[in-house]
Design goal:
EC 1.1.1.25; oxidoreductase; Shikimate_DH-bd_N
Length: 281
């Protein structure tokens, strides 16, 4: 009898991670024999930890803060999404020990907004706050939904402009306007505002005025749980529909699971289960 395949999530901190719970539920729902654990990695030890896990026979890894950029660099091959974002959240270990990097974050975000929240992005005015790894992973999948306008706004404007420049080729032949705009220069109303900054974690103020939200707009924070509450409260105060990133977490995990196992697990029952578990605490 062979041992179940091993997978893990690598990060620092990692104790809070819901990924082991999510993938365990996915495995049960799809009759897949696997073990999935959380791995706390020293801040300067990602390379060594990754090599150790590969040698120990781990078949795949999720990668979270702060190692997504390093994961992309260390992989032997990279998907188009990783090449564009410069960040990886999913690693697939081949039979030869080679590591392939992918990024399912943006796919998870779009799936949660369009499928789970029922909000179409096509033809909409979308504001993306932040220009780090989370925003970089989201930009191409958001572009693929053909919004009318996609604005990237970051505290450091040059970083937002760099991110837009890296995606300039996607604008050619598309109906989407892609712009980097400084917070003070934002105008008009937005249908969807996505917070990909660390402001929630740091307890910082929301970086843009609530007057930019169209009535009933979707205000989406990639964080979930207590970290997302300030943004969700801000959204409610300005007549917007707030949504946290728990669905994004589940959907990106489903994409990663499909890459590893060749079967896409049902995400809806797992999201419902996690919501009820979070509400009980």
């Amino acid at each position: 009898m062979s041992l179940p395949d091993r997978y893990c999530v690598m990060g620092n901190p990692i104790a809070h991670s819901r990924s082991p719970r999510i993938h365990t539920l996915f495995a049960q729902l799809t009759d897949q024999a696997l073990v999935y654990e959380a791995e706390l990695v020293a801040l300067d030890g990602f390379d060594a930890a990754l090599r150790h896990l590969v040698q120990a026979g781990t078949r795949g890894m999720n990668v979270t803060v702060p190692f997504k950029l390093e994961a992309a660099r260390l992989a032997d091959s990279r998907s188009e999404r990783v090449l564009r974002a410069g960040a990886a959240n999913t690693l697939v270990v081949g039979a030869d020990g080679g590591i392939h990097a992918d990024n399912t974050d943006g796919l998870g975000l779009v799936a949660d907004i369009v499928r789970n929240a029922g909000v179409a992005l096509a033809g909409q005015r979308v504001l993306l706050l932040g220009a780090g790894g989370a925003a970089a992973g989201a930009l191409a999948p958001l572009m693929a939904q053909a919004p009318a306008l996609l604005v990237v706004c970051n505290r450091t404007h040059a970083k937002a402009q760099d991110l837009v420049d890296q995606h300039a080729d996607l604008v050619q032949g598309s109906a989407t306007q892609l712009q980097a705009v400084e917070a003070g220069a934002l105008d008009g109303l937005f249908d969807v505002v996505i917070n990909a900054t660390a402001s929630s974690l740091q307890g910082a103020a929301i970086p843009v005025p609530g007057a930019l939200l169209r009535a009933g707009a979707l205000a989406y924070d990639m964080m979930y749980g207590p970290a997302a509450q300030p943004f969700l409260q801000w959204a409610a105060q300005h007549g917007a529909q707030g949504r946290d990133g728990l669905g994004m977490l589940v959907e990106q995990a489903a994409e990663a699971f499909a890459l590893w196992r060749g079967v896409r697990p049902p995400s809806q029952p797992v999201l419902a289960q996690l919501r009820s578990e979070l509400a009980a605490h």
